[in-house]
Amino acid sequence: MTEDENQPLLDESGRHHTYTSLNAYITTNDNHERTGSHTTFATGEKLISGRYESLDYECDESEISHMEEKRLGHQHTRRLAVLKWVIMLLIGICTGLVAVFVDFAVKKLTKFKFSYVQNRLDTCLSEHCLFTPYLTWIAINMSFVLVSGLLILWEPAARGSGIPQVKCYLNGVAVPHVLSLKALIAKVLGVIFSVSGGLAVGKEGPMIHSGSIIAGGISQGKSSTLKFDFHIFKHFRTDKHKRDFVSAGAAAGVAAAFGAPVGGVLFALEEGASFFNQQLTWFIFFASMVSTFTLNVVMSAIDGHFGDLSSPGLINFGLFKDVPYMWFELPIFILMGVMGGVFGALFNELNLRLTKFRHHYINRHWVLIIEVLLVAATTVVIAFVLIFTTMNECRPIKTQVELNSPTIQLFCPDGQYNTMATIVFSTPENAVRNLFHSEIGTYKAWSLLAFCIVYFCLTCWTYGIIVSSGLFIPSLLIGASWGRLVGIGMHNLFPSIYFNPGKYALFGAASQLGGIMRMTISLAVILIEATGDIVLGLPIMIVLTVAKLTGDYFNEGFFDIHIALQSVPFLPWQSEVFLSRLSALSVMSAPVTKLKTVEKVETIFRVLRAESHHGFPVVDHHADETNNERAGTFQGIILRHQLITILRKRNFISLNDSLRDYLTLDDFRESYPRHPSIESVHLTDEERELYCDLRPYMNLAYTVSHHSTLPRIFSMFRGLGLRHLVVVNDKNEVVGMITRKDLARFRMIHKKGHTSIEELGISN
Amino acid sequence: MTEDENQPLLDESGRHHTYTSLNAYITTNDNHERTGSHTTFATGEKLISGRYESLDYECDESEISHMEEKRLGHQHTRRLAVLKWVIMLLIGICTGLVAVFVDFAVKKLTKFKFSYVQNRLDTCLSEHCLFTPYLTWIAINMSFVLVSGLLILWEPAARGSGIPQVKCYLNGVAVPHVLSLKALIAKVLGVIFSVSGGLAVGKEGPMIHSGSIIAGGISQGKSSTLKFDFHIFKHFRTDKHKRDFVSAGAAAGVAAAFGAPVGGVLFALEEGASFFNQQLTWFIFFASMVSTFTLNVVMSAIDGHFGDLSSPGLINFGLFKDVPYMWFELPIFILMGVMGGVFGALFNELNLRLTKFRHHYINRHWVLIIEVLLVAATTVVIAFVLIFTTMNECRPIKTQVELNSPTIQLFCPDGQYNTMATIVFSTPENAVRNLFHSEIGTYKAWSLLAFCIVYFCLTCWTYGIIVSSGLFIPSLLIGASWGRLVGIGMHNLFPSIYFNPGKYALFGAASQLGGIMRMTISLAVILIEATGDIVLGLPIMIVLTVAKLTGDYFNEGFFDIHIALQSVPFLPWQSEVFLSRLSALSVMSAPVTKLKTVEKVETIFRVLRAESHHGFPVVDHHADETNNERAGTFQGIILRHQLITILRKRNFISLNDSLRDYLTLDDFRESYPRHPSIESVHLTDEERELYCDLRPYMNLAYTVSHHSTLPRIFSMFRGLGLRHLVVVNDKNEVVGMITRKDLARFRMIHKKGHTSIEELGISN
């Protein structure tokens, strides 16, 4: 055993080490100065948090794993395949049902609210007590939103849309509690109350998170929260299997939310998958398909026309039929893309600043709750102000009947409805549909402009307060309103040509969404599927592409900003070319605490207590004979939880004995995913003098030469889903260890056309 | 240097080695017998051909590559990104234009043929010489098809649909001439003449191949055939970059053929990509988008309504609007999926047998040409027989006018048309559209049945003759005809309910296509985009899934069968679990010819002349001092073409000298992709006594421990795009080498519910 166990070497939390290696890098005479870019040193929020663990997507190649395979044989493999289909089916059905539940509950609560207030209003119109219904309205909204806020205090992992967390999970970072049952409950109930409470939020983002939790839960066949275990599906209790199911769950969530099963698959691929593989894609596709289908069947049944499968998703933009476009409209679409990119970047920047402000000054529970209530009240007040300033905008009710969308009469004569009240007071989904399909002349330009600005600010403020909230629909609504404005403008400029304002609203919506989220292909397909029109697919793609290019000039995508703010060691798709000047030597943590293939129990126990690392390289046990610290060739990697299990199960031998009673994979799976800590292990003095044979349990890990450069290490991490990568020298001796945090530290910043490398610090 | 250079060890063509290692594996006492499956030994066509080279998708990490990066700096990276966009734009435009050209030419030739024959027919109807127009018809078709056949004799790489070849290329196998300019010419002209010649072929598959060739050509900025070089884009002259562009070209081809840009992206991913990455997907998406758009603009202009972007693809199924489905139809769709799977498997089996027969007995050029002419003549004769037996099936012409589809009057009264003649004599695209959209009662059940059976057999016979031909449309047509039969059957069973026969034709078509090709998500999206209807998306997915599951029970997908027939070392998506019992030791080629970091010119020259390997491991040059053959730790890999370039450029040093004049990457790129052979190198005796320093040029390759098992090696090969993988022992000494052929040798066979492992031989 080496003598350096007390040094934080393979330290996933070692800030001082980080700077050591950076300095080492800078002062080396390897003539590899960075040119053409400057290095920004880590300050403030520019940190990688040490509290995130990595997930382990590597294949297990330990001796016991081969033994299990051999024992279970061929039939087992086939049984697992069938089980996978079953799980995918269940994921699809459950996700679909949860989506139906959310939709049903929101409708019921909203209806209750409307009828109650309408009732009061009717009484008051005659009695001149208009402030009573308004106060009632505010009170109801505030209490709904309060429920949502309290749920997040109960389970903070359910805050926001959950998409950043799901992205991180699929990227390989274990975000705490992100897949817990508590998070599901808080998410589902929370989103119901925040949408019903009239906030500028959507229920689609949370559906994606909910789908992921459902998938994670079902695939494990047990719940740590409820302390039950069905003992089925136990073979899927590995990070690798669980990730596959979770990506299917996320896809099923998208499929249910937007009625877009193909979009769901692409979302899972675009946002998560460095692990694309044909078979998995097919499984994901199946889950998405089942999810849409379940939602479709149940929603049709609820709406009273069982069997007519016509409600594919939670959101229904209404079909765009026979809405052609002409080639001379393309420059306008491109311009709209630029606008979406600029507005999106502005939105992201404002929300970033607000989030930082909130991070510093709004910490305590009661302040957070007051902010939530304040947002709820402000939303209503602003809505009223908007309506009163546009009181006279009444339209005949007939077109809205076709859209099957609720209308609000307010001060309008009978047979007419108040246009602004209808988009302000209905759910955001209905508002989007109205903007997409109302005939020309429905909205006045100034009203739309006011609405657009107000809704932009409200949405920006709302995302980040402690409720469960989605950003898709609000983004679409902002974009639809300015898009429709563009349409009205075109109509006024060229009165001889008919410009369908709904079409422009759609492109505005796509552009705004693209400018904020910066996704391309999945958004395009989601929008195509949700509008049900292929013909508009091409301009939608163009608009999204331009919006992304424009937005990327200014800053990062919305979710990426939030991931960075949370100091998650997120690995981007590929390393930048600049980083090829960094070699394994300058990136790795070194020296590393090594264990020998046959190691003394006492040593293992001491190492585990002294260090917080999650993996240890195992080296040849003849090493100590030479008394050379670096000697001992690399044999494999053993994980912390495996060592703890070995200690807990007393799988010990005496020095000259050889191991006979192997632990099985079941022993190691028992406690997945919440492994006991080393503090739970108590050993007698006799036990400490015994030995552990680690060879049957260690995994044959990948190694990399110390000459390798960052791009190669990057492609191994992403392509193979690694958690630990051992750096070896020419003689296959361990010289260092690279973990996800070592790579995530180097981040490229593209801002206003400039590119620079940032090296982030690592915090605890 | 070791003494074993003359042994074919790292032999990419060493059949005897293969069996050695298999025997070694079988006789080892490692208790790893295969259970639950039996091993089939390689016989006959069950071979991996040694003539295929692998492509190298690994990142270059040689010293000179880092030097170039440093020299070119940051601006260069940005310039490359811009260049990539430009190339993607060009790929999209050119692919779109080629698609337009094919479509235009087919239309003109078909029109010429029809008007000529119609002319003769009109003359002859009065003069009772009906056989003259028929003979004319046969003669025209035969001469068109003859042209197509002769083109393939000129460039055999253009035979068939080209999809298997593109799949192989994207998988990492260099199929000879697959991306040559000659292949493009033969493909494009060939498909025009074979479609115009009335064969049961489509022009969509060849579009995918054409797109790939266009992309390969444009991205290189030069042509080896035409011997010109624009000297731009030279930085993209690596296998890795070229593959990215080719996948974009394939996607653009799909986008142009089906008007399905999203389907194109998914096709590239499903069929090719083990290299999924967000940025590349976006590039591919852009190329597809541009391709559809170009086609759309030009086709609209040709059709006389410039600016109205309404012709998204070559094929146009006609929009399915307001075609709902009820839940009780789902079991029927599932049943249709089963039928598609069974018929597809039958088709694949018959074609496989026919191809084997053809392989053995139809080899000579004149026999091949006679077969082509025979197929052309038979197709026409059968068409006439079909028409004469269904002579009285006339329908009023009005519905066809709406479909904008040509009709054939034949013996029908004026104002009516002959239904069978219309589907038999128009292009397959028109026939599919007719079956999808004609009103109920248009076709008689017996006629459809006869047509279906006849077309099934004709298609099966036609695929494989030496013409350029696609299988998409014929498959759709077969499926559409039996699907419509099912619709008619439903209508007769339940006369009270309206079953749209066109909808059933669509599901039949989807099912048949899925049963033959076994693709899922890309086919689903292509069909959704081509029919323009999202509502039918869900049942289409169900049908495709069921068809694939059913078909897979019997045999492999059509293209996979053809890839296997061509003995291509194709790597599937993932290794099967069984193979985890094979370790690197039993799979690798060993021993391996190694070179030292500073190696004598004479030795290099001798090794290159004696061996045909494409990569050599480089070991520490202090190795020989110990005089131990296995000594010398692994340093990197050097490729054959690099060594040849070093020799050709006389980059030599004397023993105690050190290298000063480095070759640059440009020197190595000069001859890409057709590198000179070692026979072109002539060295003087003095030169042979000098040394080469290989260190600046060798690539830091990945290594794997000799304990590793096949699944791990597999995921490295697929995930990292490897060509060579060096196997090292505990001390980092080279013990063997694994190439693609070593992995492709082990193939899982799923047939009629049984699973077995086949070990294929390697042929020369």
Automatic annotation (TrEMBL), chains A, B:
<dbReference type="InterPro" id="IPR051280">
    <property type="entry name" value="Cl-channel/antiporter"/>
</dbReference>
<keyword id="KW-0812">Transmembrane</keyword>
<feature type="domain" description="CBS">
    <location>
        <begin position="588"/>
        <end position="658"/>
    </location>
</feature>
<comment type="similarity">
    <text>Belongs to the chloride channel (TC 2.A.49) family.</text>
</comment>
<keyword id="KW-1133">Transmembrane helix</keyword>
<feature type="transmembrane region" description="Helical">
    <location>
        <begin position="445"/>
        <end position="466"/>
    </location>
</feature>
<feature type="transmembrane region" description="Helical">
    <location>
        <begin position="280"/>
        <end position="302"/>
    </location>
</feature>
<keyword id="KW-0868">Chloride</keyword>
<feature type="transmembrane region" description="Helical">
    <location>
        <begin position="534"/>
        <end position="551"/>
    </location>
</feature>
<feature type="transmembrane region" description="Helical">
    <location>
        <begin position="323"/>
        <end position="346"/>
    </location>
</feature>
<feature type="transmembrane region" description="Helical">
    <location>
        <begin position="245"/>
        <end position="268"/>
    </location>
</feature>
<dbReference type="InterPro" id="IPR001807">
    <property type="entry name" value="ClC"/>
</dbReference>
<keyword id="KW-0129">CBS domain</keyword>
<dbReference type="InterPro" id="IPR014743">
    <property type="entry name" value="Cl-channel_core"/>
</dbReference>
<keyword id="KW-0813">Transport</keyword>
<dbReference type="GO" id="GO:0005254">
    <property type="term" value="F:chloride channel activity"/>
</dbReference>
<protein>
    <recommendedName>
        <fullName>Chloride channel protein</fullName>
    </recommendedName>
</protein>
<feature type="domain" description="CBS">
    <location>
        <begin position="694"/>
        <end position="756"/>
    </location>
</feature>
<keyword id="KW-0677">Repeat</keyword>
<dbReference type="Pfam" id="PF00571">
    <property type="entry name" value="CBS"/>
</dbReference>
<dbReference type="InterPro" id="IPR046342">
    <property type="entry name" value="CBS_dom_sf"/>
</dbReference>
<dbReference type="GO" id="GO:0005765">
    <property type="term" value="C:lysosomal membrane"/>
</dbReference>
<feature type="transmembrane region" description="Helical">
    <location>
        <begin position="366"/>
        <end position="388"/>
    </location>
</feature>
<keyword id="KW-0406">Ion transport</keyword>
<dbReference type="InterPro" id="IPR000644">
    <property type="entry name" value="CBS_dom"/>
</dbReference>
<feature type="transmembrane region" description="Helical">
    <location>
        <begin position="134"/>
        <end position="154"/>
    </location>
</feature>
<keyword id="KW-0472">Membrane</keyword>
<feature type="transmembrane region" description="Helical">
    <location>
        <begin position="80"/>
        <end position="102"/>
    </location>
</feature>
<dbReference type="Pfam" id="PF00654">
    <property type="entry name" value="Voltage_CLC"/>
</dbReference>
